[in-house]
Design goal:
Number of strands: 0
Structural class: mainly alpha
Helix content: over 70%
Order of helices and strands: HHHHHHH
Length: 192
């Protein structure tokens, strides 16, 4: 993967997933995208809760992927992301694109129809984290299904903005740590 292809993928997911979410909500409801974004707590509270949840899940995901059993999975991700040598601003842009587009589609548009569990399984499976031929990746995938179920619950409890922010923060943490792990040549980057 090149940096350019990653940005095409990121902006593509922002545009395509947001458009699909808008279409699904427009035709099948339960409400419009604007109404979906307006539901829940006040935006400032959603932002704070999203920052907290994203930080917790992001560092927990990194802790899990640094377990010896998941060494091959961690190496897989480091080998994809690390050589791109992403800057902070690139990490933030990519993470925002994924957080906005994917959450509008999955939590906003699909979850009201499939429910939290099936939406979470679909989300994780489409990311390639469930692989019957790779036990290490599947173990990480199971953690991600649980984490995404938690975000599904948070979307219902607090609002869609909460999970957009949380998803963005998770991606910022993981992309940064994968990049740092590669650039320092260390197998594990300690949580500082």
């Amino acid at each position: 993967m090149t940096k350019r292809s990653l940005f095409v993928l990121a902006f593509g997911s922002l545009l395509v997933f947001t458009l699909l979410g808008w279409i699904i909500l427009g035709y099948f409801g339960p409400v419009s995208l604007g109404s979906m974004l307006a539901q829940g707590l006040q935006p400032g509270m959603q932002l704070l809760i999203g920052l907290a949840l994203g930080t917790l899940i992001g560092f927990l995901a990194w802790s899990i992927v640094t377990l010896p059993f998941l060494r091959n999975t961690r190496r897989f991700f480091v080998d994809i992301i690390g050589p791109l040598e992403l800057t902070w601003i690139e990490v933030i842009i990519i993470s925002c694109c994924a957080g906005i587009g994917e959450e509008i589609l999955f939590r906003g548009a699909i979850q009201p129809h499939l429910g939290i569990i099936w939406t979470s399984i679909l989300f994780v499976a489409l990311h390639g984290y469930i692989n019957p031929f790779n036990l290490s990746m599947t173990a990480y995938g199971i953690f991600m299904v649980l984490a995404i179920c938690f975000l599904g619950w948070a979307a219902l409890r607090y609002g869609l903005i909460t999970v957009i922010v949380a998803h963005t923060v998770i991606d910022v943490i993981l992309l940064y740590l994968l990049t740092k792990s590669y650039s320092t040549g260390t197998e594990d980057v300690p949580l500082e």
